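ok, trying the design again with the full structure, not the truncated one.
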């Protein structure tokens, strides 16, 4: 252990809140009794170093976008030191039920592979501790309101003088500057401002928030990718960089063809439920006992759909000969298809479509997701032991 880190450990023992007091564990970095590092080791073959081993990340984030990004870095082998506020810690520690023992399942889902400490950043000594940590870390990730950390002497300009190699990633709602910069960043608000909610929901219904916080998650993925790129750049330049990653920009970029349709053709988007604006049939259908999704992306696949459904007459109808025509005449076609799908069970339809070359799949409940053979085969469920919650399971990205 370096002398600078030995001094840092001593400072942390003295200044961390007693409920999260940091403890030395041999030559390992800092941990705390409530959040001792619990990790997934299934991402590489036994004995193979993980890509980010040796990289140290200082995580000043809370809630979802930031913790999701730093969790991925931890999964890849980085040493992640999560700094929480004294007392309650990360907001998501209280987000429940459900809880496992005293731990919020929400918190557990996005904070594996981390070591938690508590530091009062409003205290002068607390800010000094973060400065010391930044001096021995490769990456710092924060999601404070823009301008807050510079006021404490913890902005990029200040910390890059301490550690010129530091990669400093700021995650915010709207960016570091601009008319909305000082607005708090929440997934649901950014989802609305970015247009995501406007295009999500039933065709004739109200805007709908996606079932998971996709704006937060997309931002976390963008942040993780930017940090990886910055680590590569540092190999060439020897210097760190300031990354500005925000919810609004992330979600607007994810509008993809919806944005391009408007920017290039002036076409305003609308809600389509499970359907696709430009491809028919490409949507969910109700069956006798559930739902399935059919994605016929070309004319050949449409013919195969009609054959499976015993509706070959539709292939001869001039209104449905091409996708463009099917889009123009979607209502009548979809009514006919919908009535046919209602006549059999989901499992029966899946068997009939098997081998047809048409992409189909069930709309699973969450229980059905984790009974899905491919989910099990891909190793998407990681079981591990947590020091206070005991045996838990979390979803992971497989390395297969």
């Amino acid at each position: 252990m370096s002398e600078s880190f030995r001094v840092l450990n001593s400072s942390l023992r003295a200044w961390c809140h007693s409920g999260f007091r940091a403890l030395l564990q041999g030559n390992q970095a800092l941990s705390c009794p409530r959040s001792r590092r619990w990790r997934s080791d299934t991402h590489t073959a036994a004995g193979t170093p993980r890509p980010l081993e040796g990289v140290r990340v200082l995580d000043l984030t809370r809630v979802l976008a930031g913790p999701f990004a730093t969790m991925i870095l931890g999964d890849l082998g980085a040493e992640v030191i999560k700094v929480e506020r004294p007392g309650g810690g990360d907001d998501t520690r209280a987000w429940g039920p459900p809880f496992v023992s005293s731990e919020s399942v929400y918190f557990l889902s996005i904070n594996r592979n981390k070591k938690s400490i508590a530091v009062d950043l409003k205290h002068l000594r607390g800010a000094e501790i973060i400065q010391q940590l930044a001096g021995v870390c490769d990456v710092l990730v924060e999601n404070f309101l823009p301008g807050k950390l510079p006021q404490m002497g913890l902005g990029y300009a200040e910390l890059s003088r301490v550690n010129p190699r530091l990669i400093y990633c700021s995650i915010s709602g709207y960016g570091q500057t601009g008319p909305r910069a000082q607005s708090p960043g929440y997934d649901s608000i950014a989802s609305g401002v970015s247009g995501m909610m406007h295009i999500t929901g039933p065709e004739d219904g109200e805007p709908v928030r996606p079932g998971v916080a996709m704006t937060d998650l997309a931002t976390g993925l963008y942040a993780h990718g930017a940090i990886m790129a910055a680590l590569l750049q540092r190999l060439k330049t020897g210097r760190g960089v300031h990354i500005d990653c925000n919810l609004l920009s992330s979600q607007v970029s994810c509008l993809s063809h919806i944005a391009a349709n408007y920017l290039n053709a002036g076409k305003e988007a609308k809600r389509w439920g499970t359907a696709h604006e430009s491809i028919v049939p490409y949507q969910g259908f109700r069956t006798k006992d559930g739902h399935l999704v059919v994605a016929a992306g070309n004319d050949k696949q449409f013919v195969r759909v009609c054959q499976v459904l015993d509706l070959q007459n539709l292939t001869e109808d001039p209104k449905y000969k091409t996708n463009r025509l099917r889009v123009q005449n979607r209502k009548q076609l979809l009514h006919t298809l919908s009535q046919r799908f209602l006549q059999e069970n989901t499992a029966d339809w899946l068997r009939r479509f098997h081998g047809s070359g048409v992409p189909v799949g069930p709309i699973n409940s969450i229980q059905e997701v984790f009974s899905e053979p491919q989910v099990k085969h891909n190793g998407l469920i990681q079981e591990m032991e947590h020091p206070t919650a005991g045996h838990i399971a979390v979803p992971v990205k497989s390395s297969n």
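Keeping the full-length input from now on. The longest strand covers residues 79-84.
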